[in-house]
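Q: What structure does this chain adopt?
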Amino acid sequence: MPHDTDIARLALQEERLIFDAFDQGTAWTLGTRIKTFSEEAGVALAIEIRLGKETVFFYSMPGTGPTNADWARRKRNAVELLHTSSYALNLKLDKEGTTLEAKLGLPLRDFTAHGGSVPLRVRGVGVVGVVTVSGIPQRDDHGMVIRALAELCGVPLSDVALD
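A:
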């Protein structure tokens, strides 16, 4: 996998995918768009959106199970703490040959750097929440979130999608 190319593209996503405002209504729209994209792709995801530290959207599609919700929780915990996508964390740690546990002392039971969780940023404010999905390979989980974020932020997907 082209780590350096993906890492550069992930940094671009964080720069470009910024909302002017984000509230519970935006969370509903984002969550339902991800659900629609998942159904169109024929995949099942657990979808979680947090605003601050409050879960404002959660949907576990038929075909997912409790482990998907737990993966989402662990991914989200890492993103809430470090304010970067879980996929970017995964690639950076892999490149360094380390883990969240080794580098920061974070327990594997509660934190993971596995793709599918992305911080929600508001222009002039910063990170206000996290959107997380779990159910398909990590790069695809991440891509599903990015597709919906690009649409809602008015950014052409081709400008920010992973190659």
